[in-house]
Amino acid sequence: MIAQLRCQQHPAREAIARCPNCRQSFCRECITEHDGRMLCLPCLAKQAVPPAPPSALWPKLGWSLGAFAGLLLTWAFFLGLGEIFLRASG
User: Fold this and answer.
1) Average of per-residue pLDDT across 28-50
2) Where are the domains of the chain?
3) Taking the model in full, what pTM does it have?
């Protein structure tokens, strides 16, 4: 049955394999083995695209929240220290 199929890229050529991702048939030049599977070149190119870099918002937001928490903690510490000195002097 595969002998009757033609390559998607080269219709004059006989297909030798079917890509498991796109389910299309391809000739020897259009398909390659990758990680034990036969993949067509367009599907292989899609897998090779690097993932998008993470958003720069989260590190900035984390740093800002950490700085705010540090300021709040420092304020609470000095507020408590001031109350201790007021009680001790009065």
Assistant:
1) 87
2) 2-48, 52-90
3) 0.48
